[in-house]
Specification:
Layout (H helix, E strand, L loop, with lengths): L2 E3 L12 E5 L3 E5 L4 E7 L2 E6 L4 E4 L3 H4 L8 E5 L2 E4 L3 E7 L2 E6 L4 E5 L3 H10 L6
Antiparallel strand pairs: 1-9, 2-3, 4-5, 4-8, 5-6, 7-8, 9-10, 10-11
Amino acid sequence: MSVFSFSNRATPTEWPPLKLYLRETGRQLFSVADLVYLQAVANYSWLNWADGRRMLMPRTLKYYSPQLPTELFIRLHRNCVVNRHFVERLERTDTGGLVHLTTGEVLTVSRRRWTLVRRQLANNRPNLN
C-alpha cells in the first residue's frame, strides 16, 4: 500500500455556476468551486458540497459532466467525479485505490482508472512523484 499527500493550491478559475432547480426555492445558481464530489445512484446524482450539504438531483453524471471544468474535476469511478481541490491524498489498494478528501470522506478509485487519476493529480502536484 502506498500513500501520496497533497498540498492546497490556488483557487480555480471562474467557471459558470451550476443552475439547479430545487423544489423548495426554485432555480438557483451554485458555484462549482464549492462542489466536493458527485456520486451517481441509478438515474440520480448526489451532489456533495463543501458546507456539508447533500442534494439528490434527478439527473445522471453524464448530464453534469459537461457543465464541470475538466481541469478541476476528475472521474474516479463510473459513478463518482471529484473536485481535485478537495483531494488530500491518494492511497493504493489491491482493488484500485482510495481518495481521501479534506472533508474526511474517502472515495474509491477503480483499478482501471487508478493510473490516470494519479497522473492527473500529479500534473499539478509535483511533490507526488
